Amino acid sequence: MVAGILLIVAGILLVIYPPLLSIIVAMFLIATGMVAISIARYNRKYQRHFDNPTVEFIFRY
């Protein structure tokens, strides 16, 4: 219910102020990059190995 209300409010704000979409997307991309970097640093610090070779490849670099 709350998520639906938030999505409706976000949609209305995007109609009123279209540049808000680019700000939201930029914030999402920055946050995603920061999370990926922090996970990679954590995994490098503890040198964990994963059973899944795809995950191992992603976190290798």
Question: Topology, pairings included?
Answer:
Blueprint: H1 2-16, H2 19-46, H3 53-60
Structure description:
By secondary structure, this protein is an all-alpha fold. Helices cover 84% and strands 0% of the residues. The chain is built from three helices and no strands. It has helices at 2-16, 19-46, 53-60. The longest helix is centred in the middle third of the chain and has 28 residues, at 19-46. The protein is elongated, with a radius of gyration of 18 Å. The mean pLDDT is 83.
**SSE pattern:** HHH
Q: What shape does the CA trace take?
A: elongated
Structural class: mainly alpha
Total strand count, please? 0
Mean pLDDT equals: 83
- Could you estimate the helical fraction of the residues in percent? over 70%
Largest sheet: none
**Roughly how many Å apart are the termini?**
40 Å
Number of helices, where a helix is a run of at least 4 consecutive DSSP H or I residues: 3
Provide the gyration radius in Å: 18 Å
Strand content: under 5%
**Unreliable sequence segments:** none
In short:
By secondary structure, this protein is mainly alpha-helical. The protein has helices at residues 2-16, 19-46, 53-60.
List keywords for this structure.
84% helix; elongated; 61 residues; single chain; mainly alpha; 3 helices
